[in-house]
Specification:
Length: 89
């Protein structure tokens, strides 16, 4: 996949989120990125999510593509962040 294809995919997601005014309807947004693709693309997309939809950004390095084929069956960071959002941690 080329860099411009990755950027276009994330721009499409952000455009969709903004079109439906999701940031105005939710209290907190969390975006977790796999730091496995070209890092500049990951950081550019993370910055876009942070600036445009006020998302808290987490970049997980050395986790593959968050898929079973990469050996990732659980992401404890998700549970931790949900508990923090709920005030349980």
């Amino acid at each position: 996949m080329k860099i411009y294809e990755l950027l276009f995919g994330f721009l499409s997601i952000v455009s969709f989120i903004l079109a439906f005014k999701i940031p105005d309807r939710v209290y907190q947004i969390l975006a977790i990125f796999a730091g496995v693709t070209i890092l500049i693309v990951v950081y550019l997309n993370a910055k876009l999510f942070e600036e445009k939809i006020r998302a808290k950004i987490i970049i997980e390095h050395n986790k593959g593509h968050f898929s079973g084929s990469d050996g990732i069956r659980q992401l404890p960071i998700i549970l931790d962040e949900i508990l923090k959002m709920a005030g349980e941690k």
